[in-house]
Amino acid sequence: MSADGRSARRTAADIASAVAAGEESAAAVLDAHLAVIESREPDLHAFVSVLGDEARERAAAIDRSVAAGEPVGPLAGVPVALKDNLCTLGLATTCSSKILEGWRPPYDATVVRRLADAGAVIIGKTNMDEFAMGSSTENSSSGPTRNPHDTAKVPGGSSGGSAAAVAAGFAPLGLGSDTGGSIRQPAAFCGVVGMKPTYGAVSRYGLVAFASSLDQIGPFATTVADAALLLEVIGGHDPADSTSLDGPAPAARSRLGEGVDGLRVGLCAQLLTGAAPDVAARVHEAAEALAVAGARVEEVSIPEFDYGLSAYYLLAPAEASSNLARYDGVRYGLRVDAPDAAAMNRATRTAGFGAEVKRRIMLGTYALSAGYYDAYYGQAQRVRTLVVEAFARAYADHDVLLGATAPTTAFAIGSKADDPLAMYLSDLFTIPSNLAGHPAISVPFGTGDDGLPVGVQVLAPALAEPLLFAVAAALEVATPQEETVP
Questions:
Q1: What is the pLDDT, as a whole number, of residue 423?
Q2: Do 315 and 235 share a structural domain?
Q3: Do 124 and 235 lie in a common domain?
Q4: Can 158 be counted among the known catalytic residues?
Q5: How far is Cα 100 from Cα 332, in angstroms, rounded to an integer?
Q6: Are residues 130 and 419 in contact, defined by beta-carbon separation less than 8 angstroms?
Q7: Residues 323 and 252 reside in one and the same domain
């Protein structure tokens, strides 16, 4: 692997197979990826911490297990980048916020334990928008992450660090969280595969909460098959999470080779309205590719989606205002001393939270306040129900839906930082799936007029991950062959 990451495009499955067979050591795989990080990380800032020493210990343990003939798991020796809102035992988990600076959790998130059981090597904790609130990874206490394809552009958010890490070859796999598109939108901007599972298909235990009814952990990868493999590793019931679905992990790879012949695909008008012409052109090309592969593609209109953005930006801040009340200077994290408890609480939160987090706490608190609850929060919940019902009608006639992941390709760093509404519109096409709790995936499909990656989004009903990945795999095969390796 060269230090610029261009030969880092081996799949995770290939790496795990080579390590498990003793054909390559986990230590050598790790060292190669650390060399790429050393070369490009200063320009990209994908990580808040690179876990070199811990990762080397882990790789050595895997190599000892291989030498002893012990099973090492489906991700043996594969480096994985973790978003810094996933708890890691004894390792700093900050959510890119001053208020959690230096906090070391006393436990691992369930997905972190499952990665360890599968033989993965955690290579670092990735940068993010503070508490996952943002669409550009600019709202971080440690500074912005840059897009590997063009360092003047954002990588998307809030999981921009994980998307950038996978795109740059720092790790074959990454984990992020998706509350309103925070996996899929950065995947589109960085030219990688990013997937949000069905709500409850992956345990949220150990995920620092933003909006609990919307948050879901999911994979980043360079291939659809690798993303499916990672989902199978992290998914499945967890008794520690009360929202966890009672069942095994989705069999995400079970239909990868089936193709799309005979499938009914709905090209959704609302998932194109407002898209830049070059992005819309790629989506239409993707629809044509599916039709050539045997799918029946029809245009579909789902007007309820037009209200999703407004509903989301009431519901998510309302839940955030409740979830973030625990950061009070008493239990853990930052504490700014003051003469009394109220003043200490106010000073701590003033110093510890960034501007976007404060904005959303205030929005959410207002929406939940007496006299406004029914008009705002209650109404947003009713809109959420309408979105769920609209999805049900659409899926009565279509197996999957197709649209753009984001309205544009990656935008310039700083270009939307002072315009929250313009930033929020970056989530326009991804939010409906979060409101409904359904799975969705972003697949790279060519480039825009600026040469930057475009993501095409596939949406499917709850628990239809195998179908979702089958369609994504068909798109992957048909992807225009422009050079998009950063």
A1: 95
A2: no
A3: yes
A4: yes
A5: 8
A6: no
A7: no
> Going by DSSP bridges, is the β-strand pair 296-300/264-268 parallel, antiparallel, or unpaired?
parallel
What CATH number is given to the structural domain containing 127?
3.90.1300.10
pLDDT in tens, 315-366: 999 999 999 999 999 988 999 999 999 999 999 999 999 999 999 999 999 9
pLDDT digits (tens, 9 = 90+) for 245-269: 999 999 999 999 999 999 999 999 9
Facing residues of 298 across strands?
266
- 453-459 and 400-404 strand pairing: antiparallel
pLDDT at position 103, please?
A: 95
Is-catalytic flag, 125?
no
Q: Phi and psi of 381, rounded to 5°?
A: -65, -35
Active-site residue (options: 158, 162, 244, 321): 158
- Asked whether residue 288 is assigned to any structural domain, the reply reads no
Residues 41 and 180 in one domain: yes
Domain enclosing residue 367, as ranges: 306-379
User: Does 91 share its domain with 183?
Assistant: yes
Last residue of one domain, picked from the residues 364, 379, 394: 379
Angle subtended by helix axes 224-234 and 465-478, to nearest 10: 160
As for how many domains the chain has, the answer is: 2
The neighbouring-strand residues paired with 101 are: none
Give the span between the Cα atoms of 482 and 420, in whole angstroms: 33
What is the Cα–Cα distance from 140 to 44, expressed in whole angstroms? 14
Query: How many Å apart are CA 133 and CA 324, to the nearest integer?
Result: 12
Give the 3-state DSSP-derived string for 144-179, with helices as H, strands as E and coil as C. CCCECCECCECCCCCCHHHHHHHHCCCCCEEEEECC
Instruction: Quote the strand ranges of 45-101, DSSP E.
Output: 47-50, 79-83
> Among 361, 379, 397, where does a domain finish?
379
Given 25, 83, 136, 196, which residue is catalytic? 83
Q: Are 5 and 106 in contact (CB under 8 A)?
A: no
Distance CA 271, CA 481 (A): 24
Q: Which member of 182, 244, 433, 442 is catalytic? A: 182
Residues 116 and 240 in one domain: yes
Distance of CA 147 to the CA centre of its chain: 15
Q: What stretches in the chain show pLDDT beneath 50?
A: 1-8, 483-485
Q: Dihedral of the CA atoms 464, 469, 472, 473 (nearest 10)?
A: -150
* Nearest alpha carbon to residue 193 among 473, 482, 478: 473
